[in-house]
Amino acid sequence: MRPPTSLKREFLRKWIMGLQLCSSSKKEMSFVERKKAIKLSADVAMASARNAATRWSRALISKASKDDSNKGIVECILGPDLESLKGASLSMDLHSNKNISKKILSKKNISKKILRKSRSIRQAKKSCSQKVMASSIAKRLVKKRTQVLKSLVPGGESMTEFSLIEETLDYILSLRAQVDVMRHLANATELLNRK
Amino acid sequence: MGTDANGDSGFEHGDGCLLDCPSLGIFTSLPYLNGVTSIFIDDYDPPVPPAHVADAIAPPPLTTHDQIDDIYAGTVLENQEMSSTIQLTQHSSDPRFVELVPNFPPFSTGGFSEMITSCSLPKCHKNGCSPIHPLEKNVTGKTSNLRNQIDNCAQMKECHKADDGTIKFPPIEKKRKRLANDGSQFAYLKNMEAAQQKDECLGRQDERKQKAEPKIVANNCGKQIGEEVKVSSQNGEAPKEDYIHVRAKRGQATNSHSLAERVRRERISERMKFLQDLVPGCNKITGKAVMLDEIINYVQSLQRQVEFLSMKLATVYPEMNVQIERILSNDIHHSKGGTAPILGFGPGMNSAYPVRQVNLQAITQAMESSNLQSSPMSPMPNAWDDELQGIKRMGFTSTAGPENLETSELHESTAIDFLRPKGIALLTQEVLNDPAFINSKD
What we know:
Chain A is an all-alpha fold.
């Protein structure tokens, strides 16, 4: 396995920076704001710890930097020279993703729909055997679930099925590391506070 | 089936019953809050002989996930099995695993392409062996299926001729163009290993079958060569060893589309197997739909955990300032163990990024000095308390003495204690009612 400790360490480091920035900027924050700030810095730190090697991390960062209020944190976490790199890749990703993927997806969807209709008509004519129906039902289920998964993984809308699975793999690993670090921190504070 | 119910809840979130999901997450995590600190202590001081760091980190998350997520209530045994498959030391007999593990480092640095190719290697080896088998059967002579396979091997030598006529596959097009330059070489090198046997049947059947169906044959060949070119160009190694040998097996269609489909399906199923090992409790599941369901549930639960943990941290830190640094410095010292990583941590952090607050610098310097003194303490003791006391004394030399420190901390902690019983329940309600939170779930 890729050494999880290094990932966690990266994440922790960047997260600390983000938190410091948050706390220095606003003195009085409501509970919700605080929670959002924590979560945001955690997410961005996680994404940048992957060094934009994966699509989901890029998508996450681009989403976060769209919102003006978050930009400061994002920039801080990313670091000065990384920012320019990511700016380029982000803009490329954004534009390319937006334009191309929309067109491609719409075309794909239309053509797929047509194919599906013709296929189903043909199948209905040919045989209503149980096998055929079962397989079509299975396919439909799989389709539904890939849709849901696409909505879960950041930036998943414009991914083929194969890349989606890989991105999910990586995303699960990083989420796990993130949860571990956060949990340890929460425990540490709890224990310390109990003293 | 339990997963179906959870799958439904997962679907509902698309329909707008958002409140169900977060409440689920919170309720399942409440026991985590109350009773489980002992478990976390056990997790928290992993035995840190560095060789087993990976091992130590892998099992605890699984066992704690087991605790937290009722959905993933596999037995502890099952999770341990799972963790053993992930550990570096033990492997299942699956050869793909053995190939996988040393190749995960490229996962972090080089991205996915290397991982794909490295993981496709074992597959190639497997498939590379297989053509010999059916060929041997062929020699005994079942012609209808022979035809397919022999056409394939015939074309491996001939395909560079058939290049132009076979552009039916848009994705393969570019690969074929590349191929046109290297074509004959590839064909030759590939054939070196299994060539002899193939040549026999080639010699017999070649003339007969060659003209029969040039199109399909050429497509198949193109498909194979396309795969080979793709893999070898990515690897940059000698092409004879690695190619995804797509061979029409007995009784299967050799239609070009179905071949591509099959390759795609195989790659997807391979990835799904990796996912099976990541998601706890999925060893026995076969079938894409159920697997996907489990994966969705897992990702959702992880995301919910992140939300919940950030909420929890928000409650503990009314002012996110000084406490974070102090606690993080303690935390870093404990969780990362040893002196070397922390020494590497501290100065690296200071130099790379502008540190905005003086406290942090002071703390890291204090940490470093304390690390030098505290090397006898670095083998992780089991008792939190002693370490904490010791480090507080050694680390925070700026304040007067241990007692002063403790009282000052006590002040803060009592303030937090006031908050806490008001605590999680009320605050979570507050958050749930907050429309922003609900929107952020989207």
